[in-house]
Amino acid sequence: MSNPGLLITLEGVDGGGKTTQASLLVEDLEAAGHEVVRLREPGGTRLSEKLRLLVLDPQYEEMCDECELLLYEAARAQLVHQIIRPALERGAVIVCDRFFDSTYAYQAGGRGLPRDLVKTANDLGRCGIVPNATLVFDIDPKEALTRATHEGADRLESEGMEFQQRVRDEYLRLAREEPDRVHIVDAIGTVEVVHARVREALRGVVSL
Ligand SMILES: Nc1ncnc2c1ncn2[C@@H]1O[C@H](COP(=O)(O)OP(=O)(O)O)[C@@H](O)[C@H]1O
Ligand SMILES: [Mg+2]
Q1: DSSP class of residue 32?
Q2: Distance, CA 84 to ligand 2 centroid (Å)?
Q3: Domain presence at residue 161
Q4: How far is the CA of 193 from the centre of ligand 1 (A)?
Q5: Mean pLDDT by 10-residue block, N- to C-terminus, for the chain (208 residues)?
């Protein structure tokens, strides 16, 4: 990417510590003098938040895998156009809780959609954007579930353990496939210990 900003994405199964670690990372980045934009997917724009409500609403149990895939991509495309690209162009550091790797992990790994189909959809939804660095908070899904706070399990959280295991495996595969971009962060340990791992993984990517 030939713009002055940076896109850092946080990934992994629910309960792995993305939200917790995003807050600490944002503090560090701001203290280091960066303009920081914190986002979560799906969401971050008026339209994308509306799509988030749709895609995570457990009442739509009839939602087919392809419909789900396309809703995520629609929300992402709008976020890229409206927020991510302008922020990168003005030199901001974006910390985004989930991005297209989630779609590989959940829609290909979890749901079992063909990976090449998911790639085609991702190539449309990302609108030319690739994260500069992606941190995958890796944890046994069983461990993660005991951590996750359940404000009403959304559709993904209620999928069960085998699903979560496939999601984890797909994240690990992504890290093997793109080791320069996708970094596995061991999510077991205190919040401080994991935070130190985050800083280490981002050495050479951004000044902290
Ligand atoms: N390193 C950690 N050790 C133990 N519990 C943690 C740790 N990091 C986060 N938690 C707790 O686990 C739960 C899930 O963390 P969260 O940051 O919301 O994960 P995610 O956003 O990936 O779902 C929260 O209750 C959080 O306080
Ligand atoms: Mg979270």
Answers
A1: T
A2: 19
A3: yes
A4: 13
A5: 88 94 98 98 98 96 97 98 98 98 98 98 98 97 76 58 95 98 98 98 96
Whether residue 1 is contained in a domain is answered as no
- What's the domain count of the chain? 1
Among residues 42, 36, 8, 4, the alpha carbon closest in space to that of 136 is found at 8
For residue 32, the enclosing domain spans: 6-201
**C-beta of residue 205 within 8 angstroms of C-beta of residue 132:** yes
Using CB distances shorter than 6 Å, the residues near ligand 1 are 12, 14-20, 147-149, 189-191, 194
Domain CATH code at residue 35: 3.40.50.300
Between CA 134 and CA 147 the distance in angstroms is 22
Atom number, ligand 1, closest to the C-alpha of residue 16: 22
Q: E strands along 147-197, which residues?
A: 182-186
**pLDDT at residue 143, as a whole number:** 87
Alpha helices in 43-183 (DSSP H): 46-56, 65-79, 85-89, 100-103, 115-125, 141-147, 161-177
Residue 206 within any structural domain of the chain: no
Please give the radius of gyration of the chain, using alpha carbons only, rounded to the nearest integer: 16
109, HSE (Cβ side, Cα atoms, 13 Å): 24
Q: What gap in Å lies between CA 153 and CA 83, rounded to an integer?
A: 28
